[in-house]
Amino acid sequence: MDLLICGTAAAEGWPALFCVCDACVKARQLGGKNIRTRSAYMIDERLRVDFGPDSYLHQLKYGLQYEKLEHLIITHAHSDHWYPTDVHYRRRGYSVVPKDSLLYIWGNEKVYQKFEAVNPDHWDSYKIVYKRITPWRRMDLGQGTVAVPIAAAHDTSEECVNYVITRDGRSLLIGHDTGWYEEPTWMYLTGQSLNVLLMDCTYGPNDYPRGHLGCEGVVRARDELARRGALAPDARVIANHFSHNGGWLHEDLERFFAPHGIEVAYDGMRLTV
Fold first, then answer.
1. Which of helix, strand or coil describes residue 38?
2. CB under 8 Å to 98, separation ≥6 — which residues?
3. Dihedral of the CA atoms 116, 161, 79, 31 (nearest 10)?
4. Distances in Å between the alpha carbon of 7 and those of 65, 87, 206, 220, 264?
5. How would you classify the pairing of strands 161-167 and 170-175?
6. Is beta strand 146-151 parallel, antiparallel or unpaired with respect to 71-73?
7. Residue 5 vs residues 37, 113, 239: alpha-carbon distances, Å
8. Cα dihedral angle (115, 78, 43, 234), rounded to 10 degrees?
């Protein structure tokens, strides 16, 4: 699996739209890996994880061809991860979509409701099929690719999930927007032998008990996964999904994580799972 990390920021982006905090001012000055759009991922050309408000920018920046997308899998309905207004422009009259194109969107009930609120009763016009996910139930994405939604510890008002995506014996954990997992998720991950892990680091040097992790939380979660035999011998653990409220720029994060053997994601990072 070829993975492109399109965005690495939390909800407000970094630098944030209206913000003059030190972290945002410095990010604007330094540029480079300190410029972060909202988190999302492309796997090959046919699968995208999350479709937030920076999806159009990602298309332009990385030369993506969304007409080749076959599956959108959505972690939860928060607007930085699911922005269905842009999916509206797949409709006839806005886009000429290839005749044989069919897009499957996978998500929870709230993801569905948000799409319906913006685009009621026009599923055929979009050439879209909506598939409701159930935590722990396998999703067949074709060409030997399987995803399993696992329960995230994020927002109790909906079924937020992370994903374990597997193909050809290699596994990827999409682990953003979660705090410390509940025991059923830890049990599922036990013995998984994951090759690449993208782990939530929203809080940076600050750790809070719910919804997200910070730097120390990423290290603790990596150690817990190792204890449970969930890491392959060649596992790459990558911290991702950063908020400017944490205050640490890219080099600061690298300085913290380097002794732990953990990488720091940046927009446009590419790797093979």
1. strand
2. 67
3. -150
4. 17, 18, 21, 24, 12
5. antiparallel
6. unpaired
7. 10, 27, 12
8. -150
Domains of the chain in start order, with CATH, are 2-272 (3.60.15.10)
Residues composing the chain: 273
Is the CB of residue 36 less than 8 Å from the CB of residue 11? Answer: no
Cβ partners under 8 Å of residue 273, min gap 6: 1, 2, 3, 167, 170, 171, 172, 195, 196
In tens digits, the chain (273 residues) has pLDDT values of 999 999 999 999 999 999 999 999 999 999 999 999 999 999 999 999 999 999 999 999 999 999 999 999 999 999 999 999 999 899 888 899 888 889 999 999 999 999 999 877 667 778 899 999 999 999 999 999 999 999 999 999 999 999 999 999 999 999 999 999 999 999 999 999 999 999 999 999 998 768 999 999 999 999 999 999 999 999 999 999 999 999 999 999 999 999 999 999 999 999 999
At 8 the three-state DSSP class reads coil
Angle (nearest 5°) at CA 208 between 75 and 263: 65
Neighbours of 101 (CB within 10 A): 15
The β-bridge partners of 200 are 240
Task: Specify the residue for token string 């930085």.
Answer: 80
What does pTM read for this prediction? 0.96
